[in-house]
Structure prediction request, 230 residues.
Amino acid sequence: MNAVTRFLVRNRGFFVFMLGMLVFRSAVADWNVVPSGSMQPTIAIGDRILVDKAAYDIRLPFTRVSLLHLADPRRGDIVIVDSAAARERLVKRVIGLPGDEIALRGNVLFVNGHAARYAASSADGVHDDERMPASYAVESYGGMRHAVRLSKYLPSPASNYGPVRVPTGHYLLLGDDRDNSADSRYFGFFPRGEIVGRAYRVLVSLDPERHYLPRGQRTGLPLDACCARR
Prediction:
């Protein structure tokens, strides 16, 4: 038995554990770092969010192959997308389901010709507000209810969008920071197979503007809370 073989045998418990962890993170649950502000105020820059990778499918580890279909994304879910169009992993909110007609008119959302409801809201501690003042509202449509951030002075050219019809097997995803999000308005509809999990909670939050000090009040915060706290 050579030195390499002896090393592997002595440490086989560690390697089995690491393999198990990799399989678990690939197919069951994982965490993602959020480096951008496209989901503010719901998700803060620097949040580490927990992702349920078995929310919709049981997949073959390390692949996108679905072994068991459990559910489909619902309107309002925050999902993780391995996007071929964007060439990166995205965190966005499901707005349009297959067959829906979606439009934005001055950042007012229309679903199948019906306008969402908006109620004025607020958010504290959003660093982007210092350089780009914004207003906040709670957007409601059916069972979906969440906060959105809207620029006061520089609305996105995509604040007027559509109407578009979501094709079968695809979803329309938007960021909650509507004027600062690269989403379906730029990348098109996202195939069902690219949606790899649902984000549901903040694991820990580190503030990049304050030397990555923890934001203790965000630890464990559910993402289905209407307005993210800081």
The longest helix spans residues 12-27. The longest strand covers residues 195-207. Residues 20-29 have pLDDT under 50 and may be disordered. The helical segments are 3-10, 12-27, 184-187.
